[in-house]
Amino acid sequence: MPLKLNQQDRKLLLGAGLVFVLLVVVALVFSSGERGQSENPSSYSTASGGAKAAYLLLTDTGYKIRRWEHPLSDLPQATAKTIILAEPEEAPTREGRERLKAFIAEGGHVIATGMFAGTFLPENESVPDVLSGMTWKTASSLSPSQITRAAPHIVLAPRAYWQAYSAAYPLYGDGTHTLVVKYPFGRGEVLWWASATPLTNAGLKEQGNLEFFLACLGDKKNEILWDEYIHGYRPTLAASIAHSPVKWLVLQIVLLGAAVVATFSRRSGPTCVPTSEVRLSPIEFVQTLGGLYERAGTASVAVEICYRRFRYWLTRRLGVAGNTSVDDLASMIRDRWGLAGNQFAATMKQCESAGSDPFLEAPVALHLLQELDGYAAQLNLFKGIRKEKV
């Protein structure tokens, strides 16, 4: 069945299509080149904040390096191994942290960089400092070591600092904070940097950064594991997509599809006329009249109206005059239908007296009306009326 669109809907559809195409073109223009690469210090990224240049440099110069795309809980034996945790953005799992701790204690070396890298380490005295990381700073050596001899000065954008009272060995600082430290743990060693700037594509060419990076790695015989699991690279395609911006694109497509289906089904579905309440229904009339009597406080009027109506139909049913006394009516219904005449007569007399009582209470009036309704049902007084209305 072809979809029929009026002129207004067609204009709206064309306008939305043009806006969508324009957004796609703008996204392609501004995301070309390095802008489309991740700014994380990943060995896959060629952006300024990526680290592919450092990874290729180590590969070409003879270092035994490979990417690690598995959880930290699966780390191998630590013999002659170094793992690089470059700017992790996720909190470590309990199993991963315990395995990394054991890895270091077994003799492994760890280079952890960035604001949240300290949460992976067995001892953490780092403090986040986001504002300082907005500019690059020159850090000078604080203590003599093999690393500081290779690079007396380095350049980095510190996103954190190490507290001064810590027992860790300070290597570099900017005069205010300690930005690079190392400390032993078990048979291994931990190196913490305030940021990953020295190993990034843009920071690697700064004075002293390359020498500093190579000195931190140590002997070429050690195997280097570059952790890419913390950057979202997982063993399976589904796991990698779940930790990448692609999931947000899929979510947008799903939302767009749901909107299209909802609007199409709303226009193509059956037309249902909404039900409207009839303002002249009998129940509404009864409720309105009852509310009127309640506000006026005239319960006696309601009793009198119902009593006169009941008496009218009763005398008509019996075929007697309308001014027949209550006692005579009670005698007639006792002889004809076998009802208790005394109780009936008492109810009728109470209704007569209640009709002229201006101080009649609502509960008493309700009881009398219920009595009259019960007698009317037993005598079938309104049966003929209801049939005529139907």
Task: Describe this protein's structure.
Helix content is about 45%, strand content about 15%. It contains 13 helices and eleven strands. Residues about 30-35 and about 385-390 have low confidence and may be disordered. The strands form two sheets. The protein has a nine-stranded mixed sheet. A two-stranded antiparallel sheet has the order 4-7. The chain starts with 6 loop residues before the first helix and ends with a helix. Helix 9 packs parallel to helix 12 (about 360-380) and helix 10 (about 325-335) runs antiparallel to helix 11. By secondary structure, the chain is α/β, with parallel strands linked by helices. The protein has helices at about 5-30, 50-60, 95-105, 145-150, 210-215, 235-240, 245-270, 280-295, 300-320, 325-335, 340-355, 360-380, 385-390, and strands spanning about 65-70, 80-85, 110-115, 125-130, 135-140, 155, 160, 170-175, 180-185, 190-195, 225. It is elongated and about 130 Å long. The protein has two domains: about 40-240, Rossmann fold, CATH 3.40.50; about 280-385, no CATH class.
Could you outline the blueprint of secondary structure elements for this entry?
Blueprint: H1 7-30, H2 52-60, E1 64-68, E2 81-86, H3 94-105, E3 109-113, E4 126-128, E5 137-141, H4 146-150, E6 153-156, E7 160-162, E8 169-173, E9 178-185, E10 188-193, H5 209-217, E11 223-227, H6 237-242, H7 246-268, H8 282-296, H9 299-318, H10 326-337, H11 341-354, H12 362-379, H13 383-389
Parallel strand pairs: 1-11, 2-3, 2-11, 3-10
Antiparallel strand pairs: 4-7, 5-6, 5-8, 8-9, 9-10
Helix pairs in contact: 9-11, 9-12, 10-11, 11-12
